[in-house]
Input
Amino acid sequence: MSKPEQDQFSPRQSAVLEEALSLLVEGGEKALTTAGVARAANCSKESLYKWFGDRDGLLAAMIAYQASKVRTYEPTGSKLTREELRAHLLTFVRDLVDVLSGDVSLALNRLSIGQAGAGGGKLGRLMLERGRGPIGKRAMALLDAGRRSGLLDFSDGGEAYQTLYGLAVSDLHVRMLLGVAPETARKEFGSRAERAVDAFLRLYGAANKWEEPRIRHA
Amino acid sequence: MSKPEQDQFSPRQSAVLEEALSLLVEGGEKALTTAGVARAANCSKESLYKWFGDRDGLLAAMIAYQASKVRTYEPTGSKLTREELRAHLLTFVRDLVDVLSGDVSLALNRLSIGQAGAGGGKLGRLMLERGRGPIGKRAMALLDAGRRSGLLDFSDGGEAYQTLYGLAVSDLHVRMLLGVAPETARKEFGSRAERAVDAFLRLYGAANKWEEPRIRHA
DNA sequence: AACGAACCGTACCGTACGGTACTAAATGAG
DNA sequence: CTCATTTAGTACCGTACGGTACGGTTCGTT
Output
């Protein structure tokens, strides 16, 4: 796997993709016409077809391009203290929320979901492996570090990760996808982050390390 | 506004909507053309436009029609035992999962999400208030009954509900919307239901009523 | 039986989009 | 300077879909 990918798009192509993304963000899929992209990016339709094959190729390229921008940021491998783990979990949750509530992420997810029903679930798969994949891997690594440090107790990492994800996101992602104003959702998110991490630690924290006075609501 | 709603659709119209739904399930939005619906339902395009106004009206009618089929099923108002509450929570989670993983639900959500990006988030709002609304109300009623019976301890019902939802669904809904095979997801769901309820009760159960031997993972 | 409303089937129109072909200008090599 | 390559800009084609109009048919009402 020395060079499994184009390793990037040409600067010109990146600029075009950037323009296409911003065109998608405002106006949705129906606004993303080949002529519109060509006009907005000051390029010709012929170039578009030469570079990306056809419209679906352009969509796929947009997803790949956006995915190539996320920093995977593999965290530490050393031993963790309680506070470090908690802080890392918190930043993970906050990063996750930021990504999911971002304009381009929402637009791209809407695009992929909208055309997932038809025969070609190609975009959906791209979205899953390029978007969810890395995020999940990063979280799993963090959880595993927590377990190795004796701070977390679980047998199935994927299960633990899904629990954390559910606590952090709940149905807010779908609601945003359906059109709830992102600011509204973000406000909800803000207060959810700490509560989600708290709850997660109560569920999966190693018993003797995390147990607190038991009652929160007193 | 003496008659704000038709309070239903005519049998003929219901049959047409049913056909449109099944047409949407297989083939996605692009397969849902007015001509196609007319052909599949053995009706004329003119009737479609007479009944539903335009294509968007048809889509909205499909959502309203599907929503009118869910039984809201307001549960008991009496006192609950621990086992009853647990059973009710479990059936709620299972029903929720069944609904979310259903073909028509997925297709309708894809449709609404797909066109939520553009100016008209009309369908998304419909989906939220007609779909999520009733389900949430039912869950909140159940949680409130649990609290009144002294089995649950929480201050904000909405927060508790979102936690339950997140534990039960996690990211599986979005993954299904993106095209993950529903059977795969459903298999994951099956084992999640009990774990979700377990976790929820550990988080929100009144302390002296629910605490168990503490460790599940042996 | 006669009338009228509703409706099916189809044909039709305008438009908008995906995709292609062609020309002119720019850029770089020899 | 000349030639070759690339790309912007435009014009064009085929198609598919949303929406409308119209003739023929069924069905209920009187």
User: Anything to note?
Assistant: Chain B touches chain A through 56 residues (CB under 8 Å).
